Amino acid sequence: MAFDDLEGPDDEISFMALQAGTPIVTSDGQTVGRVTHVLGDLEEDIFDGIGYRHGLFGQRMLPRRAVARITHAAVHLSIPLADVEKTSSAYAEERIYQAREQGKKARWSRDDDEERY
């Protein structure tokens, strides 16, 4: 493996490689919460948004259009902190994938609970 092949914290990744607990950072550098789940369809490679927990607002969702890029270190939003609450909402999504611990790696699994965020 060449040195250039090593991935760094700022390298972009797929939403499918996103880990629970990853910070969500606004375009003006503010951390608004941490990833709890992914909204979409893993089998069809469809990304609808990211669920996250915020201390003041509880469980929230950000739509795909608010996500500028995803890296190992953070989910980077295309909007500033002032616009997050306007864009963020609590809502029901057909397919929610929770990060579950399996060995040393977190894996996404379909959330089949009746309760939706």
Notes on the protein architecture:
The protein is globular. The N and C termini lie far apart (42 Å). The protein has 1 helix and 8 strands, in the order ββββββαββ. Strands 1, 2, 3, 4, 5, 6, 7 and 8 form an 8-stranded mixed beta sheet that branches. It has 117 residues and is mostly beta strands. Mean pLDDT is 76; it is low at 91-95, 100-105 and 113-117. The chain has a single domain, classed as PRC-barrel domain (SH3 type barrels, Roll). Helix content is 6%, strand content 42%. The longest helix is centred in the C-terminal third of the chain and has 7 residues, at 81-87.
Order of helices and strands: EEEEEEHEE
Distance between the termini: 42 Å
- In the predicted model, the low-confidence regions spanning at least 5 consecutive residues are 91-95, 100-105, 113-117
Structural classification: mainly beta
The domain tally reads: 1
Largest beta-sheet details: 8 strands, mixed
- Count all strands and give the number: 8
Using the 3D structure, state the CATH architecture.
Roll
CATH class: Mainly Beta
For CATH, the homologous superfamily is named as PRC-barrel domain
Query: pLDDT average, as an integer?
Result: 76
The percentage helix is under 10%
Number of H- or I-type helical stretches? 1
What is the 3D shape? globular
Question: Percent of residues in beta strands?
Answer: 35-45%
CATH topology: SH3 type barrels
Task: Round the Cα radius of gyration to an integer and report it.
Answer: 14 Å
